[in-house]
Amino acid sequence: MLDAVVKLLTTLALGAILGAAAVWRLHYGPLYVSGPAKVIDGDNIEIAGMNIRLAGIDAPELPERNGKECRKLLSRTECIERSAYALHWRVGGEHVRCWITGSSALSAEGEFDRPLGVCFHGETELNAWMLQECHAGLPDDKAHHICRYYPVVDERTCKQQDAPVARLEAG
């Protein structure tokens, strides 16, 4: 009798897990996507028609989006261009693979904006690379990001490397 109950509970749990995975895939798309990457801006890429935001980072937004701004070490336009250009230089058109880790914040309509992903170009994790190279910062609100360990980027190091500093502040 106990064996039958254990088997039933195991079957139900497995069914619930598989069902949740199927619903996730139908609603949010695949958990893994790969292919040639088109750079949208410093923290967004498009692969196979899917716009993916790089999880755990925040890069300067394009001017028309009225987003965040770089600190005054560089002009706003320079920061935006350098951040997007750095990502484009690294991956533009080349094969990138992303693990979808969640979805970004809710829009005004109550829909999730786009998938969040941890993306790789070869063996390089792009999320961490953008931070290490000072082209992006940590988001102010990490509640909607699935964050792992990212090294803290020191602005002095960025200056010594003559790299653009894309530290963010409210815009």
Q: Helix and strand layout, with pairings?
A:
Elements: H1 2-28, E1 32-41, E2 44-47, E3 50-54, E4 69-70, H2 76-91, E5 95-103, E6 115-121, E7 124-125, H3 126-132, H4 155-160, E8 168-169
Parallel strand pairs: 3-6
Antiparallel strand pairs: 1-2, 1-5, 2-3, 4-8, 5-6, 6-7
How would you portray this structure in words?
The protein has two domains: 1-29; 31-169, Beta Barrel (OB fold (Dihydrolipoamide Acetyltransferase, E2P)), CATH 2.40.50. By secondary structure, it is an alpha+beta fold. Strand 2 (44-47) and strand 3 form a beta hairpin. The model is unreliable at 63-74 and 142-171 (pLDDT under 50). Strands 1-2-3-6-5 form a five-stranded mixed barrel. Strands 4-8 form a two-stranded antiparallel ribbon. It is 33% helix and 24% strand. This is Endonuclease YncB(Thermonuclease family). It comes from Dichotomicrobium thermohalophilum. InterPro entries: SNase_OB-fold_sf.
Describe the structure concisely for a colleague.
The protein is of the alpha+beta class and 171 residues long.
User: Which structural class do the helices and strands define?
Assistant: alpha+beta
Number of domains: 2
As laid out across the biggest beta sheet, the strand order is 1-2-3-6-5
Say what the CATH topology of the largest domain is: OB fold (Dihydrolipoamide Acetyltransferase, E2P)
CATH C-level name of the largest domain: Mainly Beta
Total of DSSP H or I helical runs spanning 4+ residues: 4
Broad shape: elongated
Cα-atom radius of gyration? 19 Å
**Uncertain spans, ≥5 residues at pLDDT below 50?**
63-74, 142-171
Name of the CATH architecture of the largest domain? Beta Barrel
Helix content: 25-40%
Quick check: average pLDDT?
68
Order of helices and strands: HEEEEHEEEHHE
Largest sheet data: 5 strands, mixed, barrel
Tell me the fraction of residues in β-strands, as a range. Answer: 15-25%
Distance between the termini: 64 Å
Strand count: 8
InterPro entries: SNase_OB-fold_sf (IPR035437)
Protein name: Endonuclease YncB(Thermonuclease family)
Organism: Dichotomicrobium thermohalophilum
